[in-house]
Every structure is written in C-alpha cells, then in structure tokens.
Specification:
Distance between the termini of chain A: 68 Å
Structural class of chain B: alpha/beta
Shape of chain B: globular
Strand content of chain B: 15-25%
Strand order of the largest sheet of chain B: 3-2-4-5-7-6-12
Number of helices of chain B: 13
Largest sheet of chain A: 7 strands, parallel
Radius of gyration of chain B: 20 Å
Strand order of the largest sheet of chain A: 1-8-9-5-4-2-3
Number of strands of chain B: 14
Low-confidence stretches of chain A: none
Helix content of chain A: 40-55%
Radius of gyration of chain A: 21 Å
Number of strands of chain A: 9
Largest interface: A-B, 52 and 59 residues
Oligomer: heterodimer
Mean pLDDT of chain A: 94
Order of helices and strands of chain B: EHEHEHEHHHEHEHEEEEHEEHEHEHH
Distance between the termini of chain B: 36 Å
Strand content of chain A: 5-15%
Number of helices of chain A: 11
Helix content of chain B: 25-40%
Shape of chain A: globular
Amino acid sequence: MAVETAPPDVGLDEAPETLLGYYREMLLIRRFEERSSEMYQRAKIGGYCHLNLGEEATVTGLMAGLQPRDYLFTNYREHGYALARGQSPGAVMAELFGRETGVSKGRGGSMHLFDVKTRLLGGYAIIGGQIPLATGAALAISYRGGDEVVMCQMGDGTTNIGSFHECLNMASIWDLPVVYVVVNNLLGMGTKVEWASAEPELYKRAAAYRMVGERVDGLDVLAVRDATRRHVERARAEQRPSLLEAVSYRLRGHSVVDPAKYRSQEDVERARLHDPIGLFARKLSDAGLLDETTAAKLDAEVQQEVTAAVAFADSSPEPDPSTLFAYTYATPVANEHRQMPGDPVVSG
Amino acid sequence: MAPTMTYRQALHDTLRAELLRDEDVFLMGEEIGVFEGSYKITAGLLNEFGPRRVRDTPIAEEGFVGMAFGAAMLGLRPVVEIMTINFSILAMDQILNHGAKIYGMFGGQTPVPMVLRTPGGGGQQLAATHSQNLEVWYAHIPGLKVVTPSTPADAKGLLTTSIRDNDPVIFIENLALYNTKGEVPPGDHTVEIGRATITKEGTDITLVGYSRMAVVARDVALRLEQEEGICAEVVDLRSLRPLDRTTVVNSVRKTGRAVIIEEDWLSYGVGAELAATIAEGAFDYLDAPVRRVAQAEVPLPYAKSLERAALPGATPLLNVIHETLDAVNFRR
C-alpha cells in the first residue's frame, strides 16, 4: 500500500481566532510544563514526571484533529494532551500533586491522567500498554456500529514492542476505527531511533499491516492538525486503522530529573532553533496576526492560569486514608481483603 | 431433581445463556469459533451467534486480552478464552499492569467487566510447559478476582456471576474436570464470588482444597468415613481472591486439625497462605501442625511414571491425614 507524505508547508487561510487559539494552547502547555518541572524540583510532585516541552505543536495539532466524541489513549507523557482535551489545568496539576481533586482523584499521578468526560481514557506508563486497550475500545465502537474514532498515542520506542505488532495486525484484519500516532521525538530515553529500529522511518511499518502510514512534521501545528483530520476522518468513514508519525523533539531530558547528557551540543542547539512555539509565533507574526503586545498578553493570561492551577492543587486536600480501598473493585464482593499493615487476617 | 451434566456442558450452556441474555456479552479467543474450542467448550456457538459475538483471534494473547479490557472500558462484557493457563502468561502485562489497575488507578472512573476463562492443571502427559497451575500468580494481585470452580454446578454459578460482575475475573478451569459430572441447578443460578463452601461436614479434621483437589479431598473424606470412621470436614475454597479465610478458620476451630491440598507447587502457594491464616486465626485450637500436600517442585515431566509421582492426589493426602491424626491425642 502506498504511503502518503504530507505537503511541506501549510498556509494560514484560517480564522485568526482559531490560529491564535492554537498558539495560546501551545503556550499554556509550555508554561504548565515549566511550572510542573519547578514544582517537581520543589518536591510538590512525586514519582516520575515526563514533560511535553518541545512537543506542543504535535499535541495541539493532534487534539485539534480529534472530535470531542472520539477517544484518546496516551502514554505517560500526557499532561499536554489532558489540557488540550479540555481538562482544567487545576485538576491536572492537582493530580500531579496527588490530591483528591485531581483528574484521577490522586490515585494515578503524572503518568496516569484519566478523564471519562473528555474521553481521555488514560495515560499508560508501561510501554505499549495502551495499544491493546485502545484497539479494544475501537473494537467496542465497531461492535456497536458507532461513529467514534480512537486515537492511540505512543512514543517512537514503542514501535518495537510486541503489542504494537499484535494490535496493528488485528486492527487491520478487523477493520477497526483507530489511528495509531507515533510521536517520534528521536530518542527513546537515551536510545536513538536508528539504533533501535531496523526501519527508522517508523510510518513505513504500517505497510506490513496493509494500512496507510504517513509522516508529518511534528513542529508544525497546522500540518499535524490537517494530517490528523485526514486519518481520523478516514477511520470514521472507512472503518480503517492507520499510522501517523509526527516527528517532534523534546527540549529536555526523558523526565524532569534527566540531564540528557547523551545529547550533542548541536542537537540541543537545533532543538532551540526549532522551538515549535517560536516557529508558529513567527508565522503568525509574518501574517500580521500576532504582535508583541498580543503575545505578551496571551503569555500573561496563561501564566496566570497556571499560577491559579498550582494554587488550586496546593490548597486541595490529600485523599483520606479511610478511602484506601474505595476503588479496588467496582462490584463489592464477600471477604474482600481490607487489612491495613499489621491488622489481623481474621477478626474475632 | 436437577439435571446431571458434565462440567464442560455446564460451561457451554452458561456461555450460551449469557450470550442470549445480554447483547454486550461476546466471546474472544484462539480457535473458539470454527474449530469450536480446543476443549469444545464453545462448540456450536459460532453457528448460533455469528462471528461478531464469537470472535476467533490470531495467536496474539497480549493483544487480544488487552483488547478485551479496552472493550470492557467502553461497557462491553467480553469473555476471553485462553487455550491453557500456560499461555495466559503472554498476556501478563495487560492483566497485571492494566486490567487489574484501571478501576483503582484512575479513581473509579471506568469499571472493567471482563472474564478470562482458562484451564490449568496437569496429569495429561502434556509436559512441563502445558501442565501448570499458575492461579496463585493471579490470586496475588489486588484488583483481580480469581475463581476456581470444582463442580459443574459451581462452574455454572460462578461463570454466571463472573460475567455479570464489573471487575476482571480470572476464571480457572481444570483439564481433568471437563468430563466430570454433577447435578446443575436449572434456570438462573449464581454463586457468590469470595465465598467458600463446605462440601462435607465433619468433626475430626479439616481438609481444604480448590478446583480438582477439592474433588479429591471430598472423595478421600467420604472413603475415610466409610472405611475408618474418621469424620473429615471438606472446605472447597471456590474463590482464591477474595479468599474466604473465615470459613477455613471456623472449620479448623471446630476440628483442631487441618490439611491443605493443592495441585500447584508447594512453596509460596495457597497452602502457605492458608497455613499462615490458620496459625493466626486458630492457633489455640490446633491439636497438630497444619500440613500441606502439593506438587513436587519440578518442571512436570512427560513420562507417566514421573508425572504420577510428582502430582498430588488421594494417596499422599491419605498419608498426611493419618500422620496429622496420629500427631497428638486423636482417638478413633
């Protein structure tokens, strides 16, 4: 099957408020992630914390191409997706802080954001874990004859794991409405794509499963959005899966604590020059849609939004230990094991 | 009188009844449709319900087990068959890291009503990789429910409950039980998950087992009563998670002695868990050390002589019962 490639550039023949909306969303993700990093350093956030810094155009473009009724499954680098999907920055930050008001009630943390209302059905932190789940969601849609589509986001390193191949195969033989999105930020932790993948042009792997594969410039928000629309609407209209690869770049290490020493100076410099927010700002500015005053105003707005999110998270209660067993089972069951450490196993 | 049927037939009829009852129920697995199932549990169901409800899958356990969890997240009730429990290990990441976690880790937003049916057990000369009892792996994991019916009636009752339950249930069958027969209540018959049952009352010693070993324990108890006048009580656990510790402890408080029989390997098994439970909950009532009868700890060999030697059964159980009774102060 032929593979498509996206046109190199996309024009700006759009409503200015739509374009500025994308810019604002990218900026919100940037500021939110910078503040997440800061809160992590201040030990307000525990565990692991992976940021979307440098991937804002990919995140915003992907989410702009998805309809509200569609479902999204992601990996653990998903703060930006939750925000772009419409979750409140306060509830997302509260989840990072481990508070009861968090999107997953403080049970999941940074890597496990979930919101049934905006149909983000989970961030998953075992590589490849989301792929069977997302494919099964697409099976449920197909089973019921629905017209929703599932997007399954993953990183470049994920394309080497078994579930990727098992599920792309099944999605194709069963004609499931799922778009697999590989965010190729060129590094799986410290491992370069070409060291790990026999076919480093990852979109080409779609051919083995007789589905369309496409690579798009993940630094261009409009190119990503338009490619996403093509894939999502194909899945909806034709009930066929496809694979979209967005070549992106993370500005920092794998997680907050990673100094990224494996990266060359040229690499880092190139990333700085190709900052997707700067690129889009220049494009908008060249088209007369964004001046310094507007840019500063938008930045102040999102900074304020993020500050409010941090304040909300910080003032939210921690989950009460009395609720420890509240969500182990959906259907209550006899003799459920509810001993706290040190409790006797049999009472009386 | 309730009709008598095989364990296999009880499973088949229950799947059919639930497919008829609820459009959200569907079956997935390797060779369950055209081939009618490796052990013929799903015979005829593809013809009756079609490929949408009875879905043959490629050989991709991690993929299709995970897909069942994903479909369950959108409200369907998939019932997956894994050909034998040995192959379920290929799906372990999905079961352990996802299926068992989704409800709790995301704060109770999405239940995962999924059943994974799979037979375990040895004794069929299938050698080391096809004869295992890995249910303890699953029973260890909070978020899963694990059931192990030993009779056709419980096979029906527990499968019905499992399919209607909103959590992932690992439903363990046993190859050597498929052809066993028993009475099965007609109509809607459910058995509560997490409750053991006493299959024979007694006063002298408590025997605890699950799945095929619960049947062995009951047979041995009946023989003991008839031939030696020893009155053993038999507890069939039926569920391994949750584990009904109370029923076991209350029985041992009554009898003062306990032997646990399991087809699984000895170390770190259900018997170990129960022995600790009895030590804690019935220490003052014990007249003899709690003993365990379990499989020899080897990769189970193919040769009949070796396989027979390694597997637990009536003979070692009888020996251990006698040793336990002889230990202290038992007068027949």
